[in-house]
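Database export, one record per block. Field names are fixed; values are copied verbatim from the stored entry.
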Amino acid sequence: MGVIAWILIGLFAGLIAKALMPGKDPGGVIITILLGIGGGLLGGWLGKVVFGVDSIDGFFDLSTWIAAIVGSVIILAAYRLITGNKPRRHA
Protein backbone atom coordinates (compact mmCIF):
# COMPACT_ATOMS: atom_id res chain seq x y z
CA MET A 1 0.00 0.00 0.00
CA GLY A 2 1.11 3.51 -0.73
CA VAL A 3 1.39 6.49 1.55
CA ILE A 4 -1.96 7.88 0.38
CA ALA A 5 -3.68 4.61 1.29
CA TRP A 6 -2.11 4.68 4.77
CA ILE A 7 -3.31 8.26 5.27
CA LEU A 8 -6.85 7.39 4.16
CA ILE A 9 -6.99 4.28 6.34
CA GLY A 10 -5.55 6.30 9.20
CA LEU A 11 -8.14 9.03 8.82
CA PHE A 12 -11.10 6.65 8.73
CA ALA A 13 -9.77 4.31 11.43
CA GLY A 14 -9.07 7.28 13.71
CA LEU A 15 -12.54 8.71 13.10
CA ILE A 16 -14.16 5.35 13.82
CA ALA A 17 -12.09 4.93 16.99
CA LYS A 18 -13.15 8.37 18.21
CA ALA A 19 -16.78 7.53 17.38
CA LEU A 20 -16.55 4.25 19.32
CA MET A 21 -14.97 6.03 22.29
CA PRO A 22 -16.66 9.45 22.43
CA GLY A 23 -15.18 12.09 24.65
CA LYS A 24 -13.24 15.31 24.64
CA ASP A 25 -9.85 14.79 23.03
CA PRO A 26 -7.43 17.44 21.86
CA GLY A 27 -6.39 17.48 18.26
CA GLY A 28 -8.02 17.78 14.91
CA VAL A 29 -7.72 15.95 11.63
CA ILE A 30 -3.93 15.55 11.78
CA ILE A 31 -4.04 13.92 15.22
CA THR A 32 -6.90 11.69 14.05
CA ILE A 33 -4.87 10.57 11.02
CA LEU A 34 -1.80 9.89 13.17
CA LEU A 35 -3.95 7.98 15.65
CA GLY A 36 -5.31 5.83 12.84
CA ILE A 37 -1.92 5.21 11.21
CA GLY A 38 -0.43 4.27 14.57
CA GLY A 39 -3.45 2.09 15.21
CA GLY A 40 -3.00 0.37 11.88
CA LEU A 41 0.62 -0.37 12.66
CA LEU A 42 -0.22 -1.58 16.16
CA GLY A 43 -3.16 -3.67 14.93
CA GLY A 44 -1.05 -5.22 12.18
CA TRP A 45 1.73 -6.06 14.61
CA LEU A 46 -0.70 -7.55 17.15
CA GLY A 47 -2.38 -9.60 14.42
CA LYS A 48 0.96 -11.00 13.35
CA VAL A 49 2.23 -11.72 16.88
CA VAL A 50 -0.99 -12.99 18.48
CA PHE A 51 -2.69 -14.76 15.57
CA GLY A 52 0.25 -15.39 13.24
CA VAL A 53 -1.49 -13.75 10.29
CA ASP A 54 -0.48 -10.93 8.00
CA SER A 55 -3.40 -8.67 8.82
CA ILE A 56 -2.44 -5.77 6.60
CA ASP A 57 -2.86 -7.17 3.10
CA GLY A 58 -4.50 -4.42 1.08
CA PHE A 59 -6.63 -1.31 1.18
CA PHE A 60 -9.92 -3.12 0.51
CA ASP A 61 -9.19 -6.12 2.73
CA LEU A 62 -11.48 -6.30 5.79
CA SER A 63 -8.65 -7.51 8.04
CA THR A 64 -6.71 -4.32 7.28
CA TRP A 65 -9.59 -2.15 8.47
CA ILE A 66 -10.31 -4.26 11.55
CA ALA A 67 -6.64 -4.20 12.55
CA ALA A 68 -6.44 -0.43 12.08
CA ILE A 69 -9.63 0.25 14.05
CA VAL A 70 -8.74 -2.09 16.93
CA GLY A 71 -5.24 -0.61 17.11
CA SER A 72 -6.65 2.93 17.05
CA VAL A 73 -9.04 2.17 19.89
CA ILE A 74 -6.15 0.71 21.93
CA ILE A 75 -4.00 3.80 21.32
CA LEU A 76 -6.87 6.16 22.17
CA ALA A 77 -7.64 4.24 25.38
CA ALA A 78 -3.95 4.30 26.37
CA TYR A 79 -3.79 8.04 25.66
CA ARG A 80 -6.80 8.66 27.87
CA LEU A 81 -5.35 6.51 30.67
CA ILE A 82 -2.06 8.38 30.56
CA THR A 83 -3.50 11.89 30.39
CA GLY A 84 -6.56 11.30 32.56
CA ASN A 85 -9.46 13.70 32.81
CA LYS A 86 -7.67 16.71 34.22
CA PRO A 87 -9.90 19.75 34.59
CA ARG A 88 -8.58 22.87 32.93
CA ARG A 89 -8.06 25.96 35.01
CA HIS A 90 -9.26 29.25 33.65
CA ALA A 91 -7.07 32.22 34.51
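Remark 1: The chain has one domain: 3-83.
Remark 2: The two ends are 48 Å apart (CA to CA).
End of record.
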